[in-house]
Specification:
35 strands; globular; 1 helix; mainly beta; four-stranded antiparallel beta sheet; 42% strand; disordered N terminus; 461 residues
C-alpha cells in the first residue's frame, strides 16, 4: 500500500531524543473523531485504508464477500469507485496525483494502473501461477513488491519488479513451510529498504529486512514463543533506526537489530489493534484497540514508546450496528503522510477522521523549522561514490534530505532527521545514496518549511 513501515542509512547526527510527554486530559462532551459516511455499497467492514497526499482509499468487503476499492478526497465529498478487475485484496498507491496503482486479487492476479485506476494492465506474467498474492508495495520509481503465499510445495517469498510489474523475479524464502512467514510487508518510503514479518510455523514470530531492493534479506532476531504471530509492523518514517512490532505480548521496538520490550497498549492482549508512526508527530507511536464490549479506542506513547500510553480517544461511538465478531478482524489506523490528521476504520463501528491540530490531546508542535540551512562542500567532487558532506543547522528541527537527478526529479532516497544546532555529518547518507546510482550529474538537497540548500555532484566511476 502506500505504506506504505531495521534501518536505512545511518545519519551521523545528534537527534532529539527527549520529546514532550503529553498529559492526559478529559474528553467529556467533546468527540473530535468525525464520522465519515460509508461508500454507497453493502459494506461489511473495511479490509484496509490508505492515505495519500490528496486522497483516502478504502478497500471494503461487502456482505456477499465481494471486495471493492473506493477513493475520497481529504477535502470531503462523495466516494468514487475504482473498478479493479477481480476482487482486490491488496492495493498500493504511489506517484504524483496517485498515478501508479498496483492491486492483487483473489484470482491470484496482479494488476497495474498508470492513470490513477482508470485502466488496468494484467501484470501477472512471471509471478508464481499457483501462489496467492497477499501484499503489495509500489513506488513511483517503478519498483513493485508482492508477498506470495503458498506457491508450489508450500513456498512463500517476495516477488520484485523494477518496471511496474512488466518483469518479475521471485525469491522463495523457504520450502514446505506450514504457515505463512510474510504477514506484514513495510517500507520507509525508499524502495531499497524493506521489512517483512510473519510466522514461520515452527518458531513463532519472524522478521527480516532488506537494504538492496529485496535482492537479499537479513534475519532480525525477535523474542518469540510458538504462539506469537505479528499483529502489525510499522517503520518510523522520521527516526529510521526505529521499527515497531506489535505481538500478542510484548510490544517491541527495534533499534537497528536490538529489540526492546515496552509496556503493552492499554487494550488487553486479546484486542484487535494496529500501529501508526506519523511524520507529523516524530518519535510517537499510536495504536488503535478495542475495549471489552467492542468500543474502539486510540492511544499513543511518546518518546519512542518509552512514555506512558495516553488515551486520545476513549471509545468511538457506534455509527453502524456492531459486528457479530468485533475481535475477529483488526482495526486500521492510518495517518495522513504530512498533515496532522488520522483516520480510523473501526471494525463494526464505522470510519472516522481526527484533526490533531485542535482540541484536547492535540499532537505537540515538534517539527521545527531549523532556520537557514547550509551544506558544506561535497568532497571529492567529481566522486566515484564515497563523499564527505556536512550540514550546518542554526536551530534544532526536522530536515528532509533528497537526491535529485539532472532534471530535478526525486530519486527515492528521501530521509528525515532531527538535527541539533551545529554541524551535522551526512557522509553515510550521501555516500550510500550515490553508490546506488549510475554515473551522471545529481543534486543533494536539504529542506525544511521553505528553507533549503543544494549541492551539485558529478558521479564518475
Amino acid at each position: 500500500m502506500s505504506h506504505l513501515r531495521t534501518s536505512g542509512p545511518r545519519l551521523t547526527c545528534l537527534v532529539l531524543l527527549a520529546l514532550l510527554l503529553i498529559t492526559d486530559v478529559s474528553h467529556a462532551g467533546q468527540d473530535l473523531w468525525t464520522p465519515i459516511p460509508y461508500p454507497d455499497a453493502d459494506i461489511d467492514y473495511f479490509h484496509d485504508i490508505v492515505a495519500t497526499q490528496d486522497n483516502l482509499y478504502g478497500l471494503v468487503i461487502e456482505v456477499d464477500r465481494t471486495m471493492r476499492l473506493f477513493r475520497r478526497p481529504h477535502s470531503g465529498g462523495d466516494w468514487a469507485e475504482i473498478e479493479v478487475p477481480g476482487n482486490p485484496i491488496s492495493v498500493s498507491v504511489a506517484g504524483d496525483g496517485d498515478s501508479h496503482l498496483v492491486a492483487t486479487t483473489r484470482e491470484k492476479k496482479a494488476w497495474y494502473s498508470s492513470d490513477s485506476g482508470t485502466s488496468w494492465i494484467d501484470r501477472s506474467n512471471g509471478l508464481p501461477e499457483d501462489g496467492y498474492l497477499l501484499l503489495s508495495l509500489v513506488f513511483d520509481s517503478g519498483w513493485v513488491y508482492v508477498a506470495v503465499y503458498r506457491a508450489s510445495n508450500h513456498r512463500h517469498g517476495i516477488a520484485r519488479s523494477s518496471d511496474f510489474g512488466a518483469t518479475w523475479q521471485f525469491d522463495p524464502w523457504c520450502e514446505d513451510c506450514l504457515l505463512n512467514p510474510i504477514q506484514q510487508l513495510e517500507t520507509n518510503g525508499d524502495p531499497r529498504y524493506l521489512w517483512a514479518a510473519g510466522n514461520n510455523g515452527f518458531f513463532g514470530a519472524e522478521m527480516r529486512r532488506s537494504t538492496n531492493w529485496g535482492a537479499t534479506w537479513d534475519q532480525v532476531d525477535v523474542p518469540f514463543s510458538l504462539e506469537e504471530v505479528p499483529i502489525d509492523l510499522v517503520v518510523d518514517p522520521v527516526f529510521l533506526d526505529n521499527t515497531y512490532m506489535l505481538l500478542p505480548e510484548p510490544f517491541l521496538r527495534f533499534e537497528g537489530e536490538e529489540s526492546v520490550d515496552y509496556t503493552y497498549p492499554p487494550f488487553g492482549t486479546d484486542a484487535n489493534m494496529n500501529l501508526a508512526a506519523p511524520t507529523w508527530d516524530p518519535g510517537t507511536i499510536y495504536s488503535s484497540g478495542q475495549w471489552s464490549g467492542g468500543l474502539v479506542a486510540v492511544a499513543r506513547s511518546a518518546n519512542f514508546g518509552y512514555g506512558e500510553w495516553e488515551i486520545v480517544r476513549e471509545g468511538i461511538p457506534q455509527e453502524y450496528p456492531p459486528h457479530p465478531y468485533p475481535n475477529y478482524w483488526k482495526n486500521h489506523l492510518e495517518p495522513h503522510p504530512t498533515e496532522p490528521r488520522m483516520y480510523l476504520a473501526a471494525f463494526g463501528m464505522g470510519l472516522f477522521a481526527r484533526d490533531f491540530t485542535v482540541g484536547p490531546s492535540a499532537a505537540p508542535e515538534q517539527i521545527l523549522v531549523p532556520g537557514p540551512l547550509r551544506f558544506g562542500a561535497v568532497l571529492p567532487n567529481p566522486t566515484s561514490g564515497a563523499v564527505d558532506l556536512s550540514l550546518q543547522v542554526d536551530i534544532a528541527g526536522t530536515v528532509r534530505l533528497d537526491v535529485l537527478d539532472a532534471q530535478g526529479r526525486r530519486l527515492g532516497n528521501t530521509r528525515f532527521l532531527r538535527a541539533e544546532p551545529g554541524e551535522c555529518l551526512l557522509d553515510s547518507w550521501a555516500s550510500e545514496a550515490l553508490n546506488s546510482l549510475p554515473d551522471g550529474v545529481y543534486f543533494l538537497r536539504a529542506s525544511s518549511s521553505g528553507a533549503e540548500t543544494v549541492r551539485r555532484v558529478c558521479l564518475v566511476r
